[in-house]
Amino acid sequence: MKRTLADLQKQYARAVNESARRGPGGRRGGPGAPRMTGKPKNIKSVITRMFSYIAKYKYLLLVVFLLILVTSVTSVFATGLLRPIINELVEKDKTALERIGYLAQTLMLLGGVYLVGICSNYLQAKMMLKISQRSIEKLRNDLFDKIQMLPTSYFDKNTTGEVMSRFTNDVDNIDIMITQTLTSTFSGLVQLIATFVLMVTSNIWLTLITVAFIPIFTFGGGLIAKHSGKYYKQQQAALGAMNGYIEETVNGVKVVKVFNHEDVCQEEFDLLNGDMRDKLFKAQFFGGIMGPIMHNFSQISYGLTAGIGGLLCLAGVCDVGSVGLFCGLSRSFSMPINMISQQMSTIFAALAGAERVFAVMDMPPETPDKSDAQTPVLKGEVVLENVTFGYVPQTTVLKNISLYAKAGQKIAFVGSTGAGKTTVTNLLNRFYDIEEGKITIDGINIKDIKRDVLRQNIAMVLQDTHLFTGTVMENIRYGRLDATDEEVIEAAKTASAHSFIMRLSQGYNTMITGDGANLSQGQKQLLNIARAALSKAPILVLDEATSSVDTRTERHIEHGMERLMKNRTTFVIAHRLSTVRNANAIMVLENGEIIERGNHEDLLKLKGRYYELYTGVKELD
Fold first, then answer.
1. How distant, in Å, are the alpha carbons of 65, 118, 195, 325, 338 from that of 187?
2. Are strands 444-445 and 436-441 parallel, antiparallel or unpaired?
3. 88 by DSSP, 3-state: which?
4. CA angle 30–32–36, rounded 5-degree value
């Protein structure tokens, strides 16, 4: 059944809600789309905050504005020289030689004026570029720093494409505005004022004709800007939706191919791409017609000024030089208006981008550490007392969970998918804070331990491995950045990874790219285990670490994990129950509750849920 654009958008909204309800164990489908639509709630606040990034360069910015002032004034001054030049050339009492001499002197003066304008324009452009790039660098740093501080729940609800669009499209639009629009707008305003003053001093009647067109410019520009701003917001939203869909489709390309879903994906993408095209067309259309419409109005103003000026000249009210000057001023007067109006599309795009960027910056960070938070040396005794938790209110995932693990013990969690096994380990790391009950390590409530210290003492080996672009050595060292090469190699040996690493083209210096695309799943998992071994954390979490590998590779991984678990408090989540037989205690979870607990032999004797899972009497969901 084909989905319409509305279906895709509704499905995405449902997927976001489902993801928030399920937490990180869930998986979302459908396209990604930003949630911010409509006008900015406070345009003044967005503008003020956006320009706060260039405020630290206020003195340099002042120099830029002075240079813009020089550039604009020289341009208007050069236009003002037209009047004496024209009058001198039409003067009947002057000889041809005198006229040529005067023209040569004036052209030299004009050349000097334009040279000053060119130099000031070059300097202001260079300085403004330096200001903008430093400001955007600070903005990107602030945004990236905030991303690091956001809770895990934010990334559960937002796709990678959505987050990336803040750093690319949105920040780039702000960059363009600071680099180009700010100077163009100020330059236009200065030139507009200077031209108006020269017009008034030249001929008040012709000035009134030109000024009469200002309400038309203002009304037309405002009307177009109103529509343009609305469509630019819609364009940004459609872009986020399309990027999100691309991201999810690329990440799931194997699933798409396995189920022959290529045609459907193309059709759904065509819907999103068509929606993007329509919204972009409207935004660009209203932003693009601003200049031509204003230009045509200025041409009408120019024609009327020239015509009426000619009549006044014939009537003896003004001279030919004044008419020629005023025709030039009339065009100069409309040019800055056109210049400013043409920047409106950039302004709206920047405001839309800034609102989205600042919305991320305003997201509440992870709960800050208490002022008296401790930095203890932990041994690994973990206790959960009556823990109740849900990813969203009114939806409980864990219900009154209590358990303990003495230092060095191995605790296993088994149960159906969605029973809450991964949630327990997420709470241990304080990826989420619990609502009821408490979790202690060595008798200390984890809320009283500094978060970075807590996580330094917990190593994790997850089912979904993630390797960074860099060498094998660097990826293992990610577990402890101050580790020596010898310690990295020893960790690899502990994880049973050393032998395969040495068979790589450059050993530990082999470059890993594309999240380990040049490695097998088992090899990636062994590196993940080596990374955890290097951390020397007293608490270890193994979350279905062998579920994605074959039996032979599983044995290698298990050998590595056995060494890794030695003298560590270990929490194991596994679907393959053979991996948890030697656990000190096995917790069987269903619907967020511990329904059975004990060691392997005790649970088999109960002939309950664990017996069903282990013997295959009832298949695991």
1. 8, 14, 12, 21, 12
2. antiparallel
3. helix
4. 135
Which segment of 56-70, 72-86, 179-193 scores lowest on mean pLDDT?
72-86
* CA 108, 109, 112, 114 torsion-angle sign: negative
Which is more confidently placed, 461 or 80? Answer: 461
Taking CA atoms, 451 is separated from 9, 389, 424, in Å, by 37, 19, 17
- Rounded to whole angstroms, the Cα distance separating 455 from 446 reads 10
Please, is 615 exposed, middle or buried when counting C-beta atoms within 10 Å of its C-beta (0-12, 13-18, 19+)? exposed
Q: Provide the b/e sequence for 301-321 (b: ≥16 CB within 10 Å).
A: bbebbbeebeebbeeeebbeb
CA triple 411-419-434, angle to 5 deg: 75
Phi, psi of 68 (to 5 degrees): -65, -40
Separation CA 593–CA 606 (nearest Å): 17
User: What pLDDT, on the 0 to 100 scale, is given for residue 94?
Assistant: 67
What pLDDT is recorded for position 258? 63
Beta strands in 258-340 (DSSP E): none
Q: d(Cα 236, Cα 174) in Å, to the nearest integer?
A: 13
Which tokens in the block code for residue 577?
């129950």
Cβ atoms of 408 and 569 within 8 Å: the answer is yes
pLDDT at residue number 15: 37
Backbone dihedral region for residue 386 (phi beyond 0: left; psi -120 to 50: alpha; all else: beta):
left
Closest CA to 364 of 164, 157, 171, 159: 157
Q: Mean pLDDT across the stretch 85-97?
A: 66
Q: Which two tokens stand for residue 527?
A: 């590196």
- Residue with the bigger pLDDT between 187 and 237: it is 187
Q: Give the amino acid at 229.
A: G
Question: 569, 469, 454: which is closest to 514 by C-alpha?
Answer: 469
CB of 142 within 8 A of CB of 171? no
Asked whether residue 55 carries a pLDDT value surpassing 50, the answer given is yes
Query: CA-CA distance, 312 to 90, in Å (whole number)?
Result: 17
Residue 408, judged by CB atoms within 10 A of its CB (0-12, 13-18, 19+), counts as middle
Is the full-model pTM beyond 0.70?
Answer: no
For residues 539 and 557, give the distance between their C-alpha atoms in angstroms, rounded to a whole number: 18
Interatomic CA distance for residues 446 and 385, integer angstroms: 12
Rg (CA), the chain: 35
**Closest-CA residue to 14 (of 34, 30, 2):** 30
